Amino acid sequence: MDYVVIGRVIDTFGVRGELKVIPFAPEEIFEDLKKVYLKRVGGGYVPFKVEGVRRHKSFFLLKLKGYDSLSEAEQFKGAHLFLPEKELPERGEEEFYAYELVGMEVWTDKGRRLGKIKRVEDFGVYDMLILEDEKTMIPFVGDIVLSVDREKKKIEVREEMVPL
After folding, report:
1. Are residues 7 and 82 in the same domain?
2. pLDDT, average across residues 76-93
3. What is the pTM of this model?
4. Alpha carbon distance, N-terminus to C-terminus of the chain
5. Alpha helix ranges (H) inside the chain
6. pLDDT tier at 112, thresholds 50, 70, 90
7. Which of 159, 154, 157, 10 lies closest to 77, judged by CA?
8. How far is residue 40's CA from residue 33's CA, in Å, rounded to a whole number?
């Protein structure tokens, strides 16, 4: 089974064991979250029941069942949260999860290879494709991105719209 990272615990929140989570997945995934998985170092994925989730500014506050104090919650700082890929909501033909784009090759409509996508960052209004050189950043918007081919793992962008 393949797992997908959906967020990272950046800190605790309050004294009742809530975790401050930076989301790496669409908001709707967090809205009905019943279970998350954490990966042990050198081991497998461990399931945790979610007692509650609420929005707080640009973060989510996540409460794991059975972890009711600040001291119990501190062990999760820095942990990544995962879900099995098959449990993610279906996306439409023109919709993508960020993890699907990572590793894709980016080419211009003029046949120039720009590189592979290293990560996708949420800039609020749109996502930004960060290429492997860490210098090339391409807004993931319709005026620039012409096509995304999941099978070929290729993205075509309008060359005159990309800062080169």
Report:
1. yes
2. 89
3. 0.71
4. 39
5. 27-31, 70-73, 98-101
6. very high
7. 10
8. 21
Give the Cα separation of 24 and 147 in Å (integer): 23
Least Cα distance to 83 among 4, 24, 21 occurs for 4
Q: Dihedrals φ, ψ of 71, to 5°? A: -65, -35
In this structure, the answer to whether residues 72 and 119 fall within a common structural domain is no
Half-sphere exposure of 108 (CA within 13 A, CB side): 14
Q: Which amino acid is at 16?
A: R
* β-strand pairing of 145-149 with 154-157: antiparallel
103-125 burial, b for 16+ CB within 10 Å, e for fewer? ebbbbbeeeeebbbbeebeeeee
Dist CA 66 CA 48 (whole Å) = 9
Distance CA(34)–CA(8), nearest Å, equals 17
- Amino acid letter, 91: R
Residue 91 lies in a domain: no
Q: Please give the biggest Cα pair distance in the chain.
A: 57
Can you give the pLDDT at residue 26?
Answer: 82
Measured distance CA(139)–CA(75) in Å, rounded: 36
**Cα–Cα distance, 125 to 4 (Å, whole number):** 23
Is residue 119 included in any domain, yes or no? yes
